[in-house]
Amino acid sequence: EGPVRIYGVFEGAIETASTLIIGRAAKVVASIVAHEGGVAGTVVGNITALDRVEIYEGGKVYGDVDAASLRIDDGGIFSGQSTMRNGDLDDFLLENRERLDSPGADGPSN
């Protein structure tokens, strides 16, 4: 239930309703679910966070990230796909999506 900090080697699955911190020397091979997370070490596996994921300088994530926001500091490495969750689509996006999905649409013209 409380914050989780990993400073060593861990393999398996991690799930917390709080914050997860992966320390600089940590090596983690796991699927991760947390409220938010910070990575200064190495993670191999997917990360799902309700709030944000931060990859600090020297941090490495090899896997997909699904979060409300993703921040990568200079010197951080991210290899995977990211999905950013947002409840509602902007009206502009909805209008243009409908236009682009219609037959014969070539996209916006200049």
Structure keywords:
1 helix, 13 strands, mainly beta, 8-stranded parallel β-sheet, 110 residues, 5-stranded parallel β-sheet
Q: Could you characterize the architecture of this molecule?
A:
Helices cover 10% and strands 47% of the residues. It has 110 residues and is mostly beta strands. The longest helix has 11 residues, at 91-101. It is globular, with a radius of gyration of 18 Å. The model has no long low-confidence stretch (mean pLDDT 87).
Topology:
Layout: E1 4-6, E2 9-15, E3 19-22, E4 27-34, E5 36-39, E6 42-44, E7 47-49, E8 52-55, E9 60-62, E10 65-67, E11 69-72, E12 77-79, E13 82-84, H1 91-101
Parallel strand pairs: 1-3, 2-4, 3-5, 4-6, 4-7, 5-8, 6-9, 7-10, 8-11, 9-12, 10-13
Give a brief rundown of this model:
This protein is 10% helix and 47% strand. It has one helix spanning 91-101, and strands at 4-6, 9-15, 19-22, 27-34, 36-39, 42-44, 47-49, 52-55, 60-62, 65-67, 69-72, 77-79, 82-84. The strands form two sheets. Strands 2, 4, 6, 7, 9, 10, 12 and 13 form an eight-stranded parallel beta sheet that branches. The chain has a five-stranded parallel beta sheet with strand order 1-3-5-8-11, with no helix packed on it.
